[in-house]
Design brief:
- The chain has one domain: Gcn5-related N-acetyltransferase (GNAT) (Aminopeptidase), CATH 3.40.630.
- It has an eight-stranded mixed β-sheet, with helices on both faces.
- α5 links the parallel β5 and β6.
- α5 packs across α6.
- It is an alpha+beta fold.
- Helices cover 31% and strands 30% of the residues.
- Bound molecules: coenzyme A (COA).
Length: 186
Amino acid sequence: MQLREHTWTLQGDRIVLRPLTEGDWDILLKWNNDPEVLYFAEGDDVESRDLEQIRNIYRGISQNAFCFIIEFENTAIGECWLQEMNLECILEKYPGKDCRRIDLIIGEKRLWGQGLGTDVIRTLTRFGFEHERSDVIFGIDIGDHNPRSLKAFQKAGYRIITKIEEPSGRKAKFSYDVAITREEAV
Ligand SMILES: CC(C)(COP(=O)(O)OP(=O)(O)OC[C@H]1O[C@@H](n2cnc3c(N)ncnc32)[C@H](O)[C@@H]1OP(=O)(O)O)[C@@H](O)C(=O)NCCC(=O)NCCS
């Protein structure tokens, strides 16, 4: 299976989102092997991923998602996607609605906390509502060990819809799902 590629380039305030391609494995491998990035990006204790795993993950996701590389000042700094909702527990609460989810990683850590993640979320959200005519977009499973992520979604207009207590021994005590509807985004 190859990546399902697309031709969208999205302009944010300071970032640009360009299509993820089969030429991007080296940067994805780097970011997905950085323990600090993985600490925040994953709920479980993932320590590393090999090229085969990386390809399988992104190729699989791309079948039902628009996958992008985040660029800042003409340099690739991370990845993100807008994906069809894949969780039954969410879909059954929103019958007949077009539900999507956003996931993102800024792999270049020196750029965390400078507003770029919020810019990415706003840009993908606008794309989802204006181009894809989505009804609701979600951020899923944001652990309370990752306040930067929760705050970035909230700054982009998302509100907490679920707070779940995590089993003991996990990094997060609680995790959150957040959402924004098309009406809220206007
Ligand atoms: C999550 C991520 C995408 C957010 O992007 P970002 O560019 O760092 O976030 P932003 O700068 O847009 O917004 C972060 C906000 O959190 C705030 N923040 C940072 N640390 C915080 C803390 N400990 N407690 C509360 N708020 C905090 C920042 O001050 C900022 O808010 P402000 O602009 O009002 O000051 C990025 O940090 C990242 O890629 N992290 C690693 C991977 C990851 O966690 N992915 C998401 C998995 S759910």
